[in-house]
Design brief:
The protein is of the alpha+beta class and about 325 residues long. The chain folds into two domains: about 180 residues, Cupredoxins -  blue copper proteins (Immunoglobulin-like), CATH 2.60.40.420; about 120 residues, Sandwich (Immunoglobulin-like), CATH 2.60.40. Helix content is about 15%, strand content about 35%. The strands form three sheets. Strands 3, 4, 5, 6, 7, 8, 9, 10, 11, 12 and 15 form an eleven-stranded mixed sheet that branches. It has a four-stranded antiparallel sheet with strand order 14-13-16-17, with no helix packed on it. Helix 2 packs antiparallel against helix 3. The chain is globular. It starts with a helix and ends with a strand.
């Protein structure tokens, strides 16, 4: 096992804290209504996730196959959810016993400005972290906003997590934003939606899409052409951002790098509103997300250092 694999897996995984959620049974069959203006189908039967503070409130068990998640962020913090597929036999208890001391040591050193020592500390992680599969989730979503994301999941044991940082530098995972999810062998029987805009995400070629983006309701597909850990050990993902005219692109780019003590930390810089997207997925995967766009300035961006130079920051305008 190469040490870099352990490092980037660990950062995504972080330090999980078990949070029990009520297990309400949901009908996951996709039903849709048609938006009369854009003739776009939106799902009505979804897996609901709610955050009011530092928690995920949702069901404990879901079917495999295609599922649509409606994530309502009712809190005062920016969040996301990421689904980590654990290797067989490993659970959230293993995270507490195997990760906690290493993670706390490494992150404390980074926050103290000792990045080299902090990254070196993550080399003490166990090898099984290299077997975790990051299987998608929502992009970053602003307070009082909702993200709708469609993913295809294999059966298994997952951890749902958010690792945005508190103002004091502590990750949300430490505060309770980690929840076990069981994906069963039973298939949902759902099909993916039909996209209005097709996005290709590549660490080598950047972000590209097949048409101009217009106002109104949109369904974006995100195809991950290739995947790799970047300098901060994070895979590339896709986040949609609404920008005020005065926002400096470099400020957004810097904030997206967790390895900067001021990066991925709340509050989010003024003028930046996150509207969802699709979180880390393996190469060859496709996920979908929904958005209702108003006229204005927007960007697609990945959670990696130097995103603009890599073609992983694309600013665009939606015209009235």
């Amino acid at each position: 096992m190469k040490i870099n694999n352990q490092l980037y897996v660990c950062i995504l995984l972080l330090f999980a804290v078990f949070l029990n959620c009520k297990s309400d049974k949901k009908n996951n069959t996709e039903e849709a209504v048609v938006d009369a203006t854009n003739n776009i189908e939106f799902p009505t039967n979804v897996i609901e996730i709610v955050t009011r503070g530092m928690e995920f409130q949702c069901v404990d068990t879901i079917p495999s196959g295609w599922n649509t998640f409606k994530y309502e962020n009712l809190s005062h913090e920016t969040h996301f959810f990421l689904l980590d597929n654990y290797p067989e036999g490993k659970t959230v208890e293993n995270t507490l016993t195997d990760i906690a001391p290493v993670f706390e040591k490494g992150m404390d050193l980074i926050n103290e400005g000792k990045s080299e020592e902090g990254f070196a500390a993550f080399g003490e992680l166990p090898e099984w972290f290299g077997d975790i599969v990051f299987s998608g989730g929502s992009g970053l979503i602003a307070p009082k906003h909702t993200a709708i994301t469609t993913l295809k999941l294999e059966p298994g044991y997952y951890i749902m997590e958010c690792y945005v940082k508190m103002p004091n530098g502590k990750f949300h995972t430490l505060m309770g934003m980690a929840k076990p999810i069981i994906v069963t062998e039973a298939n949902s029987g759902n099909n993916p939606p039909e996209a209005t805009v097709n996005i290709t995400l590549s660490g080598e070629e950047g972000i590209s899409y097949d048409k101009g983006i217009t106002k109104g309701k949109q369904i974006f597909s995100v195809y991950v052409k290739d995947q790799k850990p970047h300098e901060n050990f994070i895979w590339h993902d896709l986040n949609l951002v609404k920008l005020n005219d005065y926002v400096i692109e470099e400020e957004l780019e810097a904030w997206m790098d967790w390895s900067d003590p001021k990066g991925l930390i709340t509050p989010v810089p003024d003028g930046i509103t996150f509207l969802g997207g699709v979180n880390d997925m393996p190469a060859g995967s496709t996920g979908y997300f929904y958005a209702d766009l108003k006229p204005g300035k927007y960007a697609f961006i990945s959670e990696v250092p130097n995103a603009k130079r890599k073609g992983l920051l694309k600013v665009f305008d939606v015209i009235d």
